[in-house]
Amino acid sequence: MTTPRALAIVAGLGPGISYGLAHKFAQAYDLVLLARSASTLDPLISKLESDPAIKSLKPGPKIVGIPTDVTSVESMSAAVAKIRELGKPVTLAVYNVSSGFNRSPFLETDIKDIENGFRSGGYGGAVFSKAVLPLLLNAVGKVTWESGERVNPTLIYTGATASYKANPGMSAFAMGKWSLRALSQSLAREFAPQGVHVATVNIDAIVELERTKGMLAGVEDGKLKPAEVAETYWGLHTQGRTSWTWEVDVRPWVEKW
Amino acid sequence: MTTPRALAIVAGLGPGISYGLAHKFAQAYDLVLLARSASTLDPLISKLESDPAIKSLKPGPKIVGIPTDVTSVESMSAAVAKIRELGKPVTLAVYNVSSGFNRSPFLETDIKDIENGFRSGGYGGAVFSKAVLPLLLNAVGKVTWESGERVNPTLIYTGATASYKANPGMSAFAMGKWSLRALSQSLAREFAPQGVHVATVNIDAIVELERTKGMLAGVEDGKLKPAEVAETYWGLHTQGRTSWTWEVDVRPWVEKW
Amino acid sequence: MTTPRALAIVAGLGPGISYGLAHKFAQAYDLVLLARSASTLDPLISKLESDPAIKSLKPGPKIVGIPTDVTSVESMSAAVAKIRELGKPVTLAVYNVSSGFNRSPFLETDIKDIENGFRSGGYGGAVFSKAVLPLLLNAVGKVTWESGERVNPTLIYTGATASYKANPGMSAFAMGKWSLRALSQSLAREFAPQGVHVATVNIDAIVELERTKGMLAGVEDGKLKPAEVAETYWGLHTQGRTSWTWEVDVRPWVEKW
Amino acid sequence: MTTPRALAIVAGLGPGISYGLAHKFAQAYDLVLLARSASTLDPLISKLESDPAIKSLKPGPKIVGIPTDVTSVESMSAAVAKIRELGKPVTLAVYNVSSGFNRSPFLETDIKDIENGFRSGGYGGAVFSKAVLPLLLNAVGKVTWESGERVNPTLIYTGATASYKANPGMSAFAMGKWSLRALSQSLAREFAPQGVHVATVNIDAIVELERTKGMLAGVEDGKLKPAEVAETYWGLHTQGRTSWTWEVDVRPWVEKW
Questions:
Q1: Neighbouring C-beta atoms of residue D216, cutoff 10 Å
Q2: Mean pLDDT of A155-160
């Protein structure tokens, strides 16, 4: 728990990593969850609120879903207006937005896919960051943990192997992810001395999800569990400011790399 | 000289590196030079054509300027139509387009600048590549040097230090350049086995130009000379196909890095 | 606490990061601490044992110092024999050994310094790893946390900025550190599928120590606090095996990079 | 040809890349070739001298073999004494020494193999560099090409994919190669401003050799030809000093990476 009770924002809510993050952050934070549509947000928020680990918290976290296109300046700006109305400091924000991707030969890749890779990659990351950084800067030095220690406002991006390696047939996805990593590195250098910790987590894994059930079927713990990677995000957020990490990679024990 | 006489395309013609490239390539190639406006192209083409080293060539190179916005699918498509009319194989293409950049704090950086960084970075690179790769693929195995050796069609991108390092205040420029490097790496992997050599040259330098005259004024050979770096591009183009390079860095001897 | 009570090994005990690690690990582990001489080990172990946070633990950790040259196969082998006598599983081992370094022009650098950089870098890391990996492998699947969750045996190396960047005048130090990072990457890939988590922490900081008191004097939290970075090592050790990190960087909020 | 006629040194002569380098350099240079034993040097020098392309040169190059253990300070020092006796400026030196390597599980890898990896990697590179850098520095500004342009003394190291990627079972080889790359980067930064160009070529290929005949048998141009990669080394050597490259990768067109 933080004093005063602060807000964590997760952009790109879905059933995978972002849900795991929300579940973890709810232990200490009120939540603002962003996804394109209420039809994505509502069932996941219901699931969160009815999770025994969340229900048992006293006081329980307030969880607000705001349908938002985080790659649109206007939409993101409207979301921030609503977040400000909540009247709480924001000390944690995660950009966990991804385009889907298909491997396709470059000459068969639509230029729109390249556009879209950038939209949900670096561009969306920038739109989101421009919106939330003022909130995070605002909270520097003003929120503490129950222990009395300083809460360092933190902005985390979810990357992928494709954030630093561009495989054949993956240009659209990789271009977006590389540009997001560039953003993250530039902002880490600019905002750390202002008190905001900027970090990146590169996921090298298939995530354990309903729709990935058939994959790596026989391999024990072969897929990344959102609840496990959430600990790594949380670890980044709680690092003391003499020891901040910019980038970590995560992958299952059996992953080849 | 190549047999049959082939074409080199340089996109992003200006007075610096690209002019040096055109000057070098003209020793062996006819040229198609692309820049946004005829007012940029015309004086540089006149300068090229009147250069003694070019004038002395027999037969002299044919140099065609096509005003083109290489970041527009339509404009680039029109340019390719004109190139096809020239009826010559294309075995060398260079993407040397850059947005200018200003260091600015992220929260004062217009989202348009981020958009533009990507336009002239990865996106423009992709538009250009989608247009010229069919031409390059078409020339695989069909053109030789006077010596009889195979000319390997080559696609080269100009990068920068900001292609792999994102400094504070440089997010817009870096995001564009990182995405271009991602494109280059993905295409290098995809097209090498099809016979097209894809490479990147990362420039870590101030270029010697009229407008940089005042910079590093007392330092001998402190600025990159386009004629010198042109040899490195040429070296990439003439590598035998058992020994292709994807990426090189270049910087003046006195540069700190 | 682990079940059964397990051992953590820290190689390269000194007053800085390694002391912070020992202090952190003692919350859950018995400790084996390695340093070249008893005169280094004894006062630090006394300090640890008399630390209120350690003294209050019931049962308190057993802390054993073994004077060892971890860059010597024989000495390390003798240490392992003593560790085996303790009869406990080993689930955490940290290689935190460094040569000191002085910037010196390469032609004035003694070849012995280059030898020594490698001794305490990759070579010492390899000697240590060959000695402790059989112990760690032995503990795979056999130790749990009080919660019942699996303890994943973990081997962590301390690196530096010089692990991936070789500055002028720093060749001896950098060569040792790069070779250690290579070792760490190779072993991470080899041992993860066998159940041992191998990771690297690259420190980009001046460490807060008695002898660094005068440095960055006016800068609040400008130096890395061992207690803070210890949380990051602990975070690596406690990652679930679907989400293992190989490498993290850490630096103070005000550090330029 | 250079004025005055200068010397190129190739360390690690064998039938592969280094032979290709010697063959290329002989077009312009007298040669000093180093290998452990006369039984390696003599037949290769005979082969070189009887090569039609070399025999046709007027004046032909002087080719001197000096049996040398380049990883021994004493042996390398004796070689330099002999080189000095030749009374010629040295403007090109290549370190092309490699241990062989076998993939082996780390716990079955002899610590001697790790020692040896470093010997022929960074350590040998350092011994060689300490010996030849004074010669190279001595030649700065004193030698020109026939065109009158400055010859920039150049020191080049041969690396491998294992110079930046450490695969499982490859720790000994990778540790040596990473340390050599670190050396190369540190020296590039230190000696460029003194006029000596330091560069690295990372080979990602099987080299076309008698003993690799059976490998990639059906693949046209699937193996790296020493004569082709020699052009890349030569290109590095002849770069103007406003445009020096530190690192290039090379691989056959069909290589997966």
A1: 17
A2: 98
Q: What is the pLDDT of residue B102?
A: 80
Nearest Cβ partner for C243 among A229, A241, A247: A229
pLDDT of residue B40: 97
Strands C154-160 vs B90-95: parallel, antiparallel or unpaired = unpaired
Residue with tokens 């004494």: D81
Q: Which residues on D lie below 8 Å from C76 (Cβ)?
A: none
Q: Are B169 and B105 in contact (CB under 8 A)?
A: yes
Residue A5's pLDDT is 95
Smallest CA–CA distance, residue C245 to chain A, in Å, is 4
- Per the CB < 8 Å rule, is A252 touching C231? no
Residues of B with CB under 8 A from a CB of A: 73, 105-107, 111, 114-115, 118, 121-123, 126-127, 129-130, 133-134, 165-171, 174-187, 189-191
Q: Can you list the pairs that C41-49 forms with residues at least 24 positions away whose Cβ atoms lie under 8 Å?
A: C41/C13, C41/C65, C41/C66, C41/C67, C44/C13, C44/C14, C44/C15, C44/C19, C47/C19, C48/C19, C48/C22, C48/C23
State pLDDT tens for residues C140-165: 999 999 999 999 999 999 999 999 99
pLDDT in tens, D106-145: 999 999 999 999 999 999 999 999 999 999 999 999 999 9
Average pLDDT of chain C is: 97
Tell me which chain B residues have a C-beta less than 8 angstroms from the C-beta of D181: none
Residue A67, token pair as written in the block = 């349908």
- For A93-151, what is each residue's pLDDT tens digit? 999 998 777 899 999 999 999 999 999 999 999 999 999 999 999 999 999 999 999 99
Helix (H), strand (E) at residue C197: strand C197-203
Q: What is the mean pLDDT of each run of 10 residues along chain B (257 residues)?
A: 95 97 98 97 98 94 98 98 98 91 92 96 98 98 96 98 96 97 98 98 96 93 98 98 98 97
Using alpha carbons, list the distances in angstroms from residue D88 to D6, D34, D83: 6, 17, 8
For the segment D28-55, the average pLDDT, to the nearest whole number, is 97
Question: Are the beta carbons of B228 and D242 separated by less than 8 Å?
Answer: yes
Q: Rounded to the nearest 10 degrees, what angle do helices B73-85 and B124-138 cross at?
A: 20
The pair of three-digit structure tokens given for residue B108, joined into one six-digit string: 């004062």
Query: Under the phi-then-psi rule, with left for phi > 0, alpha for psi from -120 to 50, and beta for the rest, what region is A169?
Result: left
Q: Do D243 and B228 touch (CB under 8 A)?
A: yes
Does residue D247 come out as left (phi exceeding 0), alpha (psi in the -120 to 50 range) or beta? beta
Residues of chain C contacting residue D182, judged by C-beta atoms under 8 Å apart = 166, 171, 174-175, 177-179
Give D47-67 pLDDT, tens digit per residue: 999 999 999 999 899 999 999
> Which chains does A contact via 3+ CB–CB distances below 8 A?
B, C
Domains of chain D: 2-250 (3.40.50.720)
Measured between alpha carbons, how far is B134 from B141 in angstroms, rounded to an integer?
14
**Dihedral of alpha carbons B9, B15, B20, B23, sign:** positive
**Mean confidence (pLDDT) of chain D:** 97
Distance of CA A66 to the CA centre of its chain: 15
The residue whose two tokens read 């069932």 is A43
**pLDDT band for position D100 (50/70/90)?**
confident
Using a CB-CB cut-off of 8 Å, the residues of chain C touching A238 are 231
Identify which of C229, C231, C241 has the shortest CB distance to residue A253.
Answer: C241
Rounded Cα distance between B168 and A190, Å, is 5
What residue of A is the nearest CA neighbor of C149?
A228
Q: Which amino acid is at A198?
A: V
What is the nearest CA distance from C135 to chain A, expressed in angstroms?
A: 19
Q: Which residues on chain A are in Cβ contact (under 8 Å) with B121? A: 179
